[in-house]
């Protein structure tokens, strides 16, 4: 084991297979949650209290539903991509594109989660407080989903060891 990272004894195919497996594990988590959120959002429009909502709530709902649909499309896209390029020796491209689709999908998932929270909290609290709480939660998401990994990545990029010896996850 190299300082700060693992040295792997694997060829390019094994590395690509491992990366694909890791990405699938990540997708399993976010796909299920996104599907549940989307299904829940679809039911809201048919509830009696929603029919009495104001324009702000309707706009937040519409944006949230669209964000959830886009997130779902992007997070399910790697499955379709894999089916289309299966057995074409394109695993490197599959992983690159699937990873980007997942990253973008997570942004839309955050938007959908935020909108869903705002719709729910707007019922419980005054609108200003609901917006404030959602903003705080969004900042928390941004910190743990993006800022923390970026800091760890930047610290790892500053290591003195050769990049080729350390796994490039």
Write the layout of secondary structure elements.
Blueprint: H1 12-44, H2 48-51, H3 55-85, H4 91-124, H5 127-157
Helix pairs in contact: 1-3, 1-4, 3-4, 4-5
Query: Per the principal axes of the C-alpha atoms, what is the gross shape?
Result: flat
Q: How large a portion of the residues is in β-strands, by DSSP E?
A: under 5%
Task: Kindly provide the radius of gyration, computed on alpha-carbon positions and rounded to a whole number of angstroms.
Answer: 20 Å
Task: Please give the alpha-carbon distance between the first and last residues.
Answer: 15 Å
Q: What's the helix count?
A: 5
Q: Main beta sheet, described?
A: none
Helix content: over 70%
Mean pLDDT: 87
Helices and strands: which structural class? Answer: mainly alpha
Give the helices and strands as they follow along the chain: HHHHH
Any low-confidence stretches, pLDDT <50, length ≥5?
Answer: 162-168
The number of E-state strands comes to 0
